[in-house]
Amino acid sequence: MAFDIEMIQKVYATMAERVDKARELVGRPLTLSEKILYSHLWEGTPSKAFTRGKDYVDFAPDRVACQDATAQMALLQFMHAGKNKAAVPTTVHCDHLIQAKVGAKTDLQVANSQSKEVFDFLSSVSNKYGIGFWKPGSGIIHQIVLENYAFPGGMMIGTDSHTVNAGGLGMLAIGVGGADAVDVMAGMAWELKFPKLIGVKLTGKLNGWTAPKDVILKVADILTVKGGTGAIVEYFGEGAESMSCTGKGTICNMGAEIGATTSTFGYDDSMRRYLNATGRADVVLAADKVASYLTADAEVYANPADYFDQLIEINLSELEPHINGPFTPDRGTPVSQMKAEAEANGWPLKVEWGLIGSCTNSSYEDMSRAASIVEQAVAHGITPKAEFGINPGSEQIRYTIERDGIIATFEKMGTKVFTNACGPCIGQWDREGADKQEKNTIVHSFNRNFSKRADGNPNTHAFVTSPEMVAALAISGRLDFNPITDTLLADNGEEVKLLPPVGDELPTKGFEVEDAGFQAPAEDGSGVQVLVSPTSERLQLLDPFQPWDGKNITGAKLLIKAFGKCTTDHISMAGPWLRFRGHLDNISNNMLIGAENAFNGKANSVKNQLTGAYEEVPKVQRAYKAAGIPSIVVGDHNYGEGSSREHAAMEPRHLGVKAVLVKSFARIHETNLKKQGMLALTFANEADYDKVQEDDTINFLDLVDFAPGKPLALEFVHADGSKDIILANHTYNASQIEWFVAGSALNLIAAAGRA
């Protein structure tokens, strides 16, 4: 039986009535995305139609999922909400704090020792508040959600940007910051601007070397890292129906890389097969009763241009394998063009490592198809030219592929089998030699390839591709190897051409596992003690942020003017800093250390206006805070792209930054800033970015009149006494302004809990 089956049945029981009413109000057929949105309104049955990209709407998600790195801060906040139990089904998954180095067994033992304090905290706080806890080694959050919790037509939020993976099972699953999760866990409405809709029509059928991964790599190339911002991407067509459920999950997963709110597919036979295979026949039985409500109305897919804000068409039969990168997941190169592209750009052609796994591509099908390539190499006596590593997505996947001989196949090629965890995908990789910072190339099936993300080396050129292509490129040791046309040289001198990959969508003998790693919470957690040592370096109880004093912010200093790409990795790095994710003051020492200073082209080097010296960003900001001087951060386009980590918003808030003024924001980060009581502003005129000077002092002229739809005027006083008045737009509505006034959204929740 599925987890929370009664909740799922309750969702389906009201879906028809709510969707029918929404269709009546909107006055036209509905997309799947609209059906799920309108059936999850906080008010229940819809009473009005909403305008895409304009109206802020309150929703009631069905469940919440948190990974260990973000769960710490989310649950530390939830402890202040005054609630005895999470209001909706919630889970915590320990997958981020396990470093890949030696191999699964040793690495897990090390993690359990080094992070015992954090795991014990998460276990106990989950036990107290009725939250399901998945132990270290149980698997990666999004794979476990797909295997156990996702269901067609549902809505969930998760404190990880790749929560969107559950769209592979027909959900609207949305990545958020911890404060958003706290809202829902506390039984409150969750606010989202009603998304625009991008339709992707898939015709034809994948064949040969192409895989579901190539669909999203192509879409990323088309839309870029910000092209999906504020939109849901809905996939449909014969090509969509021909793909596996986990393949659909891969496509939805990387929708985070185009800035999309989420991505999804309509309910179909592949989802039925997957639900049945993972022991959830009861969900299939319930879903089949409302199946027509779990996909778009027929008219929508027949005439998609009439119903979507943007339409993309991809013929899968003609799609070529893609290799995206380096340094950004939206730079797409078809495999046939890689040789010319690599040579033209000076990319290292020698592949040093091939990595398969992460939440994006760690399913049974992914592993079996990649293993079919490895098996060919072994059979022909081909020695791999690159090192190779895999991260199974869950203990259930690992146990099953071990039973079926797939792990043994990988090991014949010297593959390192890492823990069922994120590992290298999030920088949790102790890669030998990375400290030398040599220029090199790696290929992986992950979702992100930002500079320094995998191994901390800024000169590692990381390329994203499918698991089967990772296997081929790692075996060949060449970035420009095209398995469709090229041959490999066996150890005996024989030229070998690899056959296209093959693999089972689902295990023919079914999934199997001895201990999945799940810990159910206590029925009554009132007696459970959650202990946080006051001397801990890893965990720190939170103090509420101070409310706004009602005055204009004046005398603020420019902390940094960030140039170019500034992701949450740049604002709050992962890797070795993950150990401080539960300690706000300690992790604040990584604030903006990866951002490039527009005035000197350096990272972690900004001018301290109190001394004139160039120092580390956190050190300068702490000096301003100690002196009682406010500050602001200025940034470029798509500021805050990447992970949902709210630390990137909480750190500047904690250290005294008052506002972030940029050309444009990534969705999750803008919301995180708002939730923490920060001012998230955009240039009304992007050219004004160039007016900002290094020694500027900033005065807000009309913050006392802060109101929805009203731009704010900021006076930038330059060192020579001249001034520029810069207008800043914002997207705050009335309730979000209340967050700012109160000091944070959590302050309002806590006040309501005390009332």
Our estimate of the beta-strand percent is 15-25%
Report the mean per-residue pLDDT as an integer.
96
- Please give the oligomerization state of what you see: single chain
Strand order of the largest sheet: 22-25-26-27-30-29-28
Sum up the overall morphology in one term: globular
**DSSP helical segment count:** 25
Walkthrough of the structure:
Helices cover 31% and strands 17% of the residues. It has 755 residues and is an alpha/beta fold. β2 (63-67), α3 and β3 (90-93) form a beta-alpha-beta unit. The radius of gyration is 25 Å and the shape is globular. The strands form eight sheets. It has a seven-stranded mixed barrel with strand order 22-25-26-27-30-29-28. A six-stranded mixed beta sheet has the order 6-5-2-3-4-21, sandwiched between helices. It has a five-stranded parallel beta sheet with strand order 16-15-14-17-18. It is built from 25 helices and 30 strands.
Question: What are the salient characteristics of this protein?
Answer:
31% helix, 25 helices, seven-stranded mixed barrel, alpha/beta, 755 residues
Fold blueprint:
Elements: H1 5-26, H2 32-38, E1 56-59, E2 63-67, H3 68-78, E3 90-93, H4 104-114, H5 116-128, E4 132-134, H6 141-148, E5 155-158, E6 172-175, H7 178-185, E7 190-193, E8 196-203, H8 212-223, E9 231-236, H9 238-241, H10 245-253, E10 262-265, H11 269-277, H12 281-288, H13 298-302, E11 310-315, E12 322-324, E13 332-334, H14 338-345, E14 351-356, H15 364-379, E15 387-390, H16 395-403, H17 406-411, E16 416-417, E17 440-444, E18 460-464, H18 467-476, E19 488-489, E20 495-496, E21 518-519, E22 556-561, H19 568-571, H20 584-587, E23 606-607, E24 614-615, H21 617-626, E25 631-635, H22 647-655, E26 657-662, H23 667-675, E27 679-683, E28 697-700, E29 712-717, E30 723-729, H24 734-742, H25 745-754
Parallel strand pairs: 2-3, 2-5, 3-4, 5-6, 8-9, 8-11, 9-10, 14-15, 14-17, 15-16, 17-18, 22-25, 25-26, 26-27
Antiparallel strand pairs: 1-7, 4-21, 12-13, 19-20, 22-28, 23-24, 27-30, 28-29, 29-30
Helix pairs in contact: 1-2, 1-12, 3-5, 3-7, 8-10, 11-12, 15-18, 24-25
